[in-house]
């Protein structure tokens, strides 16, 4: 393996300029190539290449809080336990006390469930089709039209 830091030979005697140049090379290599434990938000903090864990575990990971972060096994198990079984029917007879209806529904907030596939949606018994009548992003169902507070909205999820 080649040396990562190439230093000039000093030879005999005292050569201040070569010693300073060598210290500068060491400083530059440390500043440019060493991953420091103390994070500085003004410095780059990304990997430049793919990393090989050599079949070793990643440990001491924090719980994920945003998209793009890896989740821990305990978070994955929590997701599995809250996913509703196939064919579960969830019904909203009234859409809220405001009487305004709406078109965006967070199934996790309303029913406390996580949806892992596109649900069947019925408004007053009439099946809606995706993407013409609704879309799903995470647990958020967005209908293309507004549902009135007197409409009966049914979600058949986990199919």
Describe what this molecule looks like in 3D.
With 159 residues, the chain is of the alpha+beta class. The protein has a domain at 88-157. The protein contains 3 helices and 7 strands, in the order H-H-E-E-H-E-E-E-E-E. The protein has helices spanning 16-33, 73-82, 107-111, and strands spanning 88-92, 102-106, 120-123, 126-128, 134-137, 140-147, 153-157. The strands form 2 sheets. It has a 4-stranded antiparallel β-sheet, with no helix packed on it. The chain has a 3-stranded antiparallel β-sheet with strand order 2-6-5. Strand 5 and strand 6 form a beta hairpin. It is rod-shaped and about 95 Å long. The protein starts with 15 loop residues before the first helix and ends with a strand. Residues 94-101 have low confidence and may be disordered.
Low-confidence stretches: 94-101
Give the helix level as a range of percent: 10-25%
Strand content: 15-25%
Cα-based radius of gyration, to the nearest Å: 29 Å
Main sheet, how many strands, which sense, barrel?
Answer: 4 strands, antiparallel
Report the total helices: 3
Order of helices and strands: HHEEHEEEEE
Shape: rod-shaped
Mean pLDDT: 75
SS class:
alpha+beta
- Tell me the number of strands: 7
Strand order of the largest sheet: 1-7-3-4
- Terminal residue distance: 56 Å
